[in-house]
């Protein structure tokens, strides 16, 4: 299972230190500290994280094999913009620099 958490930098640094000091008897603490210590940090200033599947569903709706359509380059660009605009945001953008 994967989750995203927001914790203070001091707590993150403490998890890094404790990671090597814990034994596996305290499984919950061990798992939580290792999860934090091994997490992938989001870069400062990242954009919104969105659900890519929702973009795919919008751009590539299920169609009958007989259905064909064509579009201009501008129409395709607008479809892509709409798909990203309508995608649900999982994590809001980081506005800090």
Features:
45% helix, 2 domains, elongated, 97 residues, mainly alpha, two-stranded antiparallel sheet
Q: In this structure, how is the largest beta sheet organized?
A: 2 strands, antiparallel
Compute the separation of the termini in Å: 30 Å
Uncertain ranges: none
Strand content: 5-15%
Instruction: Please state the CA-atom Rg, rounded to the nearest Å.
Output: 21 Å
> How many domains make up the coordinates?
2
Secondary-structure map:
Elements: H1 9-19, H2 27-37, E1 49-50, H3 52-59, H4 73-86, E2 89-91
Antiparallel strand pairs: 1-2
Tell me about this structure.
It is a single chain. Helix 3 packs antiparallel against helix 4. This protein has four helices and two strands. It is mainly alpha-helical. The protein folds into two domains: 41 residues, no CATH class; 43 residues, no CATH class. Strands 1-2 form a two-stranded antiparallel ribbon. The protein is 45% helix and 5% strand.
In short:
It is built from four helices and two strands, in the order ααβααβ. It is mainly α. Strands 1-2 form a two-stranded antiparallel sheet.
